[in-house]
Amino acid sequence: MDEKLSRAIEKRRDDLVALTRDLIRFPTVNPPGEAYAPCAEFIAQRLKKSGFETQLIRGEGTPGDTDRYPRTNIIARFDGRTHGQTVHFNSHIDVVDAGDGWTVDPFEGVVKDGKVYGRGACDMKGGLAASIIAAEAFLEVYPDFAGSIEISGTVDEESGGFGGVAYLASKGFFSKPRVDHVIIPEPLNKDRICLGHRGVWWAEIETKGEIAHGSMPFLGDCAVRHMGAVLDAFEKELFPALDQKQTRMPVVPEGAKRSTMNINSIHGGQTDDYSGLPSPNVPDSCRLVIDRRFLLEEDITEVKREVTSILDRLQWERPKFHYNIRDIMEVQPLMTERDAPVVTAVAQGIREVFGKEPEYVISPGTYDQKHIARIGLLHDCIAYGPGILDLAHRPDEYVGIEDMVESAKVMALGLKVLLSGSI
Ligand SMILES: [Zn+2]
C-alpha cells in the first residue's frame, strides 16, 4: 500500500490506543445519556489541535434531552486548500449499560494481550478513534488534498438516534452540497463493507375482552385467550411463511438472510407489581409488541397485511374477537449500490491493506444510516470499522489494537481515493 500513509498510521499506534482508552473513560451510557457533553468537548479539543473547525450542537427538545442530560453532539470539519468533495466519518459516542459479567472495569480502558477492553471499545469508540487517526495521518501526508473532511461524534444511536444523527440531518448536516460521502465506523470486521440494513416494523397489537369475576370466566371474555389464538396462528402460518422468504441482500449472519419476527413483549391482565395476592379478574386487555424485520424485496404494506389478514380472519372465526393495531416504528430497508464512490474507495483500501477482495454485507438491524438516507437524502453511505460485531453490548467487550491500526489504514486510503483532486 501507500508507504507514506502506512508509516504515518504506524507511528500513531500508541496515540490510537491512548485515544480509544480516553474515549472509553467517558461513561456515555444511554439511557440516560450520561457524560455526553464532556465526551463531545474532549473530541472537539482533540480535533481543534489537528486544525479542524468544531461545533457542539445540542439536540434541543429531542427524547431525553434535559439540562442534566443534554444531547450534545460534536461535528468537526477540515477544509482543504482547494475545493472538492466532502468525506464524513460519523460515530456514535453513546454506549449501552455495562451490565454484569465483566472481569475488568468497563470504563477503565484496560489494555491486555493486544486489545483494549471496555464498554463501547468495539461499539464504537475504537472505530471513532481509528477514523480520527486516519484523518490526522492523511492530513500530514497529503496536506494539499482537494475537498473537506468531517468527523462527528453523535449521541443516542442506541436509542434510535433522534437526538443525534436524525437531529443533525434535519438541520442539513448530512446533505449535499455540505457532505458527499459518509463512512460510519461501526464494528463490522475490518475486511467487510456494510452496505445497509433490513427494514423494521414495530407494532403493538391489542386484543380486547370483558372483565368479570375469575370464578365465573364464562360471564366475561378473556383477552389473553384471544391473544393465545393470535400467537397460535403466527406459529402455524406466519413464522413458516417468513422462513421461506429469501433475499438478494447479503445479510449476515446467515440466519438473518430471510424475514424474521421477534415477539418483543406480551402483557395481559393484572400487572405483576401488586403486593399480596392478585384479585380474581378476567383480563379485558392483552397487548403484544412485534418486531418484524423485512427485506428489500418486500413492501411494507404487504408486511403489515400479512399480520392484519390473520387478525381479520380471527375476527370471523372467534366469537367476540376484537383487536387494535398501532404502528410504533417503521424503517425502510437500505442497500447502497456496490459501485457507489464510497464503496469502491473503501474496497480499494481493503484490497491494498489485506490483499483480498472485501466482503459486502448487510446488517440484520438498523443503525444511523437510516437517518442519513431518509432525512439527509444522502445515499453514498456505508458502515466500515474495526471490531467484531458479536462483541457489541456484551461483557468484556474489546477491540483489537492491530484491527484498529489496519482499519485506520483502510479509512486513510479511502480518503486518498475520494479526495484525490490534487494528490
Ligand atoms: Zn454501534
UniProtKB/TrEMBL annotation:
SUPFAM superfamilies, alphabetized: Bacterial exopeptidase dimerisation domain (SSF55031), Zn-dependent exopeptidases (SSF53187)
Domain Peptidase M20 dimerisation: start-end pairs: 196-313
Pfam families: M20_dimer, Peptidase_M20
EC number: 3.5.1.18
GO molecular function, one term: succinyl-diaminopimelate desuccinylase activity
InterPro entries to which the protein is assigned, alphabetical: ArgE/DapE, Bact_exopeptidase_dim_dom, Peptidase_M20, Peptidase_M20_dimer, Peptidase_M20A
Cofactor requirement: Zn(2+); Co(2+)
Database matches in Gene3D superfamilies: 3.30.70.360, Zn peptidases
Keywords, ordered alphabetically: Cobalt, Hydrolase, Metal-binding, Zinc
Keyword Chaperone among UniProt keywords: no
Family of this protein: Belongs to the peptidase M20A family.
NCBIfam families linked to this entry: DapE-ArgE (TIGR01910), PRK13013.1 (NF009558)
Entry-linked PANTHER family: ACETYLORNITHINE DEACETYLASE, ARGE_DAPE-RELATED DEACYLASE
Name of the protein in question: Succinyl-diaminopimelate desuccinylase
